[in-house]
Design goal:
The protein has five helices and 43 strands. By secondary structure, the protein is mostly beta strands. It starts with a helix and ends with a strand.
Length: 748
């Protein structure tokens, strides 16, 4: 009953407050009915070479006079000029851009879709072919013609958002790009086939062009974007108009078979046979309709995926690692954008991976996803993992739908079903089912947003108290931003495909795990100031509160964290924070090899300072220090990340995370050390070698991961991967793997 009242109260006040304030807050840069572009049509061929020699380029209107997006917005660019032309024929969209800038040009990688791409000079285009501000495409390049293509969803991409996390770079397509460099500019020529895009034949697309100039640390867009948002935000697009309706291009699909040879040795298992393994599989993408794709994977293998970056975890919850497997990334927002971060009803790493990140063989997978029309997006996925003694096989079925009610307000629903398999038969008594609905409201002409949701789990062993609820309210203004949410789960909410932290508590004395339902509250408030003429781009003062309470009424987490961040014009940053924590251990918990800390209430404080140096330099660093209390003891922590860049072909990195925790007798003390080293070499735009080492005393593991990639064409690759793991304490071998994998992408 208490949860039901919370949901009703949250629904009423969230909707009322957001709608009323949303109507009152109008921003001139949203909606933008006056910002339009007209594409020129050509029936003559255009040769993509970076030289704008065709007559059509000379006779096409020029889009110029970009607006600054950062560190100020609402003003025209002055010294940094960009000129863009846009043309189309019956099969392709052509974009030409002259990016005026004196040398040097900054390029930090030659590898496609690499996060280091965004640290350098960039020109790109944002396309919303369905013109719904719900999903879009990013095509971008740099002075070395390195390509980035990605999809971007209807999310709140603010200045604080990590751009690499906001984009889905797993989406890849075949498109052309060439760049020429002159004394005072670099010129881009792009050709994007219509067949790689999903679009509605309405005669109007959403569009924006963006430019990053690293020398001045400034960002620009053709249609204005407020400074609190990043340049790829879908809410701030202009409109692209066609002289005639586009002809629907034929979209059939592609197949990508692979062949793999693998040697895998487990030194902890004396019964394992030391035999190489050969494996074949297939991925396919078939177009069902202009907006829907069918993806199929048979006997998939993800050996080429880079290993997780290890972390020192001294919290009482698991770490949410990102999904890096290609099959699960495209259109992933259809399934994952439910709940609140980090309480997610769906977490794709539960499929085909165990708790330690080790692979569980997947036999087959199929997914239908995309847009049915301008209002409805759907996703339907089925995966089957292999049954092997003593591991059971599991069949995973997931369905999700996002329906636009009006404007940017969406009704969303999901259904997940996990069914155990034994002897190739579904087990009627072994299942876990989840169902839920949500409403996401985003004000059409302002910066307010809210969301409401409710879900439930169904399992054979638990009935009642099986609900999951959430409510959110947020605002992102130029100076003031805040976000608050509440969420909770019942004692019997069982979710085997999601990520619900702080629901499980370990009793270290009995080595027993207990599941407890809880309510979670989070609030963040910030104020940002953008000086117009100074060595500082922005100051940001903020405060956060995190509060969690069990269904029995015990507060087990209460944190207040005031913080301050300053961003300098030379790209360096300084971040200060001070934390006031009041945690409660529900059960004894061990951090050392001595006695576990007793259950009960604790109170402690600690400070943290982090500094990152000028990211444009060949040698750059990020360093941090944390010191203060830790339950009834003390914790000292030092972090360091060093990068040496040989532009654009090499990056050499070293990282360290050193922790020392000390408790009074008899609880002991412990030192945790995590060291890492990484080398990224780009021999060309098609041949790459990445090697990194990780030394982690908490996991008693030393890891070597080396990967060679030859990109035969944009989507076909040869991988050679070597992985080695050793114990640290006794320096014993754990396992060793060598993989040679070749996949070929064939359009059909």
């Amino acid at each position: 009953m208490r949860t039901s009242y919370k949901i009703l109260i949250a629904a009423y006040f969230t909707s009322l407050l957001c709608i009323q304030i949303g109507k009152a807050q109008q921003l001139d840069s949203i909606g933008q009915p006056g910002f339009k572009l007209l594409a020129s049509y050509t029936d003559k061929p255009i040769w993509i070479d970076g030289f704008l020699s065709e007559d059509i380029w000379k006779n096409t209107p020029v889009a110029k006079e970009f607006w600054m997006n950062f560190p100020q917005s609402g003003i025209r660019s002055d010294s940094i000029q960009t000129e863009v032309r846009i043309v189309y024929d019956n099969s392709r969209l052509y974009i030409a851009a002259s990016c005026f800038s004196k040398k040097p040009n900054f390029v930090f990688t030659l590898k496609r879709d690499n996060p280091l791409f965004w640290d350098g000079d960039v020109f790109g285009v944002v396309l919303d072919p369905m013109n719904t501000k719900n999903n879009g495409y990013i095509f971008a390049t740099n002075p070395k013609a390195v390509q980035i293509d990605a999809t971007v969803g209807n999310q709140n991409i603010t200045r604080e958002t990590n751009l690499s996390n906001a984009l889905n770079t797993s989406w890849n397509s075949k498109w052309q790009c060439k760049v020429t460099i002159d004394v005072d500019k670099w010129t881009v020529e792009m050709a994007i086939p219509f067949r790689v895009l999903r679009y509605a034949n309405t005669g109007t697309w959403g569009i924006n062009f963006f430019r990053r100039d690293v020398k001045t640390n400034t960002y620009y867009t053709f249609f204005p974007v407020p400074v609190q948002y990043q340049e790829i935000n879908l809410d701030h697009l202009g409109s692209l108009h066609w002289l005639s309706f586009l002809q629907k291009t034929k979209r059939i699909g592609a197949i990508s078979p692979y062949i793999l040879s693998k040697y895998d040795k487990d030194y902890t298992n004396d019964n394992q046979k030391d035999l190489p393994d050969a494996k074949v599989g297939l991925d396919a993408k078939l177009a069902i309709s202009p907006g829907l794709d069918l993806d199929i994977t048979v006997n998939p293998d993800f050996s080429q995926v880079e290993a997780d970056r290890q972390v020192i975890n001294l919290s009482t919850v698991n770490i949410l690692f990102p999904e890096q497997r290609l099959f699960f990334q495209e259109n992933s927002d259809l399934f994952t954008n439910f709940g609140i971060p980090p309480m997610r009803p769906f977490y794709s790493r539960r499929i085909g991976l165990d708790e330690d990140g080790n692979a569980i063989p997947i036999l087959f997978g199929a997914r239908i996803s995309g847009a049915v029309n301008q209002s409805l997006r759907i996703g339907l996925m089925n995966m089957l993992t292999k049954e092997s003694s003593p591991e059971k096989g599991v069949n995973y079925t997931s369905a999700a739908a996002h329906y636009r009610l009006f404007g940017k307000t969406f009704f969303k629903a999901y259904f997940h079903n996990l069914q155990d398999i034994k002897g190739n038969k579904l087990q009627n008594d072994g299942f876990n089912r989840l169902v839920g609905i949500e409403i996401d409201y985003r004000c059409e002409d302002c910066d307010w947003r809210s969301s409401l949701g409710y879900g439930a789990s169904v399992t054979p062993e638990a009935k009642g108290e099986n609900g999951f609820y959430k409510a959110e309210l947020g605002y992102n203004g130029r100076h003031i931003d805040f976000f608050t949410n509440i969420a909770g789960v019942g004692n019997n909410y069982i979710n085997e495909i999601g990520f619900i932290p702080r629901m499980f508590h370990q009793d270290s004395e009995t080595d027993t795990i207990f599941r407890k339902g809880f309510d979670h509250y989070f609030t963040r408030l910030g104020y940002t100031l953008y000086p117009k003429k100074a060595a500082i781009n922005s100051h940001r003062l903020g405060i956060r509160n995190i509060y969690s309470i069990t269904k029995g009424g015990t507060t087990f987490r209460n944190e207040w964290i005031p913080n301050y961040r300053v961003r300098f014009k030379n790209t360096s940053e300084l971040h200060l924070s001070y934390s006031f924590l009041h945690p409660t251990l529900l059960y004894p918990l061990v951090f050392t090899d001595q006695e576990p800390l007793p259950s009960g209430k604790y109170a402690y404080q600690f400070g943290n300072i982090t500094y990152s140096a000028d990211a444009r330099k060949n040698f750059t660093l990020e360093a941090g220090i944390q010191y203060g209390g830790f339950y009834n003891g003390k914790r000292a922590r030092a972090t360091l990340n060093l990068d040496y860049r040989v532009r654009p072909w090499g990056v050499f990195s070293f990282s360290a995370d050193l922790n020392n925790i000390r408790f009074p007798n008899p609880f002991g003390e412990e030192k945790f050390v995590l060291l890492g080293s990484k080398m990224e070499l780009s021999f060309s735009k098609s041949l790459f070698w990445t090697t990194f080492f990780q030394y982690n005393t908490q996991r008693d593991n030393f890891n070597i991961n080396s990967r060679m990639q030859w990109q035969i064409n944009s989507l076909s690759n040869l991988f050679i991967v070597y992985i080695d793991n050793y114990e640290i304490e006794n320096w014993g071998k754990k396992n060793r793997t060598l993989v040679i994998k070749f996949n070929y992408w064939l359009d059909i």
